[in-house]
Amino acid sequence: xxxxxxxxxxxxxxxxxxxxxxxxxxxxxxxxxxxxxxxxxxxxxxxxxxxxxxxxxxxxxxxxxxxxxxxxxxxxxxxx
Length: 80
Fold this sequence. Notes:
This protein is α+β, with helices and mostly antiparallel strands. 20% of the residues lie in helices and 10% in strands. It contains two helices and two strands. A two-stranded antiparallel sheet has the order 1-2. The termini are far apart.
């Protein structure tokens, strides 16, 4: 959605959904609140989190290092 209108789906952009509240990409126009990144925000949230959402932080986990049990037992004996 821009000031000149919407070019999606014959000029019809969809308003933001409840999940979009708090996002930095929402823009207010006379007709309501719209997403500046997606013309149909509900489709972004259909499968999971929106990949363009600025207010959602994804949890990145560091992979656990694989431990060789043979080496671990040798280290344990050495430290005793």
